[in-house]
Amino acid sequence: MGIGVSRRSVLKGSAVGTVAVALGTKASAVPTGSADIESPLIFHSPEFEPFCDQLPSLSTLSGNEITLTAQVGQHAFHRDFPSSPALSYRSGEIGGGYLGPTVEAHSGEPIMLTFENDLTGHPLAADMDMTLHGMQADFRANPPTSLHLHGGVTSPESDGHPELLVMPGQAAMHHFSHGQEAAHLWYHDHAMGITRLNVYAGLIGNYLIRDEFDTGKLGNPLGLPAEEFEIPLILQEKIFTPTGAQNGRSTILIPEGSWEGGAVGDVGLVNGKVWPELSVARGLYRFRIVNASSASVWNLHFSNMMTFWVIGNDAGMLDAPVAVNAFRCAPGERYDLLVDFTGLSEGSTVELRNDEAPPLPAAVIGEVTMPLFCRFRGDSRRGFTGGVPSQLRGGRRQRDVLAPLEQPTVIRTVTVSQQLELRNPPAQMTLNNLTFSTTDVERPRQGTVEQWNIVNTTPDPHPIHLHLVNFRILGRTPMRTLEYLIRHPQPVIGNKWTPSPDGFEAGPMIAPAPWEAGMKDTVRVDGGTVTRIIVRFPTEDELGFDPDAMFDRLPSAVMTGGGMTGGDQAHQGNGHHGMSNHDASNTGRLQGYVWHCHLLDHEDHDMMLPYRIVP
Asked: What are the recorded GO MF terms, alphabetically (predicted)?
């Protein structure tokens, strides 16, 4: 193997790399040792030599009929370590090993996607917690899946409902109508109680919707880099075993097979490789970034703190590019970037880095900042020579500018919380203090505009994702959280708890950052704040389908709890029932969508609720 480098070494070496890039010098060697004492309470990856793997180019898939198959395979995450088990989506000879191909579709042109589960075991089977909602004893050998198109305007039966399980040997049909403008969506697993493990193991892929403005071709009306100069980047963090295999655990404090509450990684990956490098031509690039991690918000920047531009996020383009030196990106969020490497001389390098500290529970047991994702090395090629556009909407051959925020007719308070108790495993996470099996769900009406006041009583950020709809961020207001909790004590889980945040403000509302403007489907709800969003719930006529239609589970997934291992007493009283009873007849029918925290450990236990968009 090559000389190893720990994450602390990389963090210390960043200052050297930054000076080198700023001066335009050749890249210097990264330090190879560290005297820091690592926490004995957490697992640590082996030392990896950075920048010895080239950034993988993800294969592309298109057509009006597509088949994706979830498979177990082998993947080498780093040059110096052997291949190890991983999951992937494969389409014929395209893809396989780890992650899935990038699907390209066109606005208004439907696709019929057949999803097949061909899993024969699971690389993280030992980490499955059989006390979680809906888990079944044989899932270690026969893992369930459910394909969700994140950000898609999708009918309920095709949305990847977490209880619409596709078992090994089964297939499900998904109709994607693409009734939306060009945007960077992504598809990933969404199976109840096991999403965090399926996604971590590799069930992720990009999904790019094109339109007549953002065509994905050179010479497009927006003047954007395209083809070889447009690169999707799937960002992740992981912990690896000494042999270079994926480790689904982060701390020795919680036994194997028990839910942890959030596994923060110590190594950065891009497109499935540890700390890769990409040779870049001298010119402008477009990077389509998704935070596909399970647990971490990142503050992304380049090692020389150079300016770059955010041109879009979850659901499409901003009105105009926003110049930044850094931006925060939460799990589930996508950001569309323009980066100019014109000034990067041949052989010089610059790194994509993170300096956001891990969430408090991880920091307490010794986790430190995961500092690095990848490196870009200048070469002699001439790249895309077009400049950064002055505007992206409102001009000739562009979409209209973003509409002003609509006035809500309903103001709805929802809560993000965790019981205040010291316990191992950690206390259960909830929305509205309810579990997924509740029937007390939000029921916004079709055609109405609502303001959701999302109250986060925890100290950590939670990215909240609403299926089907897009929204705008109104702002975030700091709260006197302790006073709020004293005045409104949180009851036993299972009792709805949504006290108004009015009167508990600790300061004025802070407007969203300019790069958070535009239509979103995932919002970062910071700890100790109320985050306000404005969301319009579309009508059946606008959608072309009934968002409140009932639909059937696949036959083998019609369960009444008899084969389930999760129960009321699991996790010392904070466990779950079997499958939920959102269909009163328990015939296997489902209805509606879900909203949830996109920290996937939280989503699995139990920070996810159904909701319905009613006539």
From this structure: copper ion binding; oxidoreductase activity
Q: What is the mean pLDDT of the chain?
A: 90
Q: Spell out where 479-586 has E strands.
A: 522-525, 529-536, 550-552
DSSP three-state, residue 483:
helix
DSSP 99: B
d(CA 540, CA 454) in angstroms, rounded, equals 26
Q: What is the SS3 assignment for 344?
A: coil
| Nearest Cα residue to 294 out of 249, 245, 258, 326 | 249
Is the pLDDT at 500 greater than 60, yes or no? yes
CA dihedral of residues 373, 379, 384, 390 (deg, nearest 10): 60
Q: Could you give all domains of the chain from N- to C-terminal order, each with its CATH number?
A: 7-52+224-382 (2.60.40.420), 410-542+589-611 (2.60.40.420)
Length of the chain: 615
Q: Which residue has the tokens 């090993």?
A: 97
| CA pair distance 595, 606, nearest whole angstrom | 11
Question: Residue 268: is its pLDDT beyond 80?
Answer: yes
Rounded to an integer, what distance in angstroms lies between the CA atom of residue 431 and that of residue 452? 13
Q: How far apart are alpha carbons 57 and 278 in whole angstroms?
A: 10
Q: Which helix (H) or strand (E) holds 273?
A: strand 273-274
194-198, 417-421, 500-504, 602-606: the lowest-pLDDT one = 417-421
φ and ψ at 188, to 5 degrees?
Answer: -160, 170
Distances (CA, A) of 177 to 151, 273, 455, 467, 541: 13, 33, 34, 15, 14
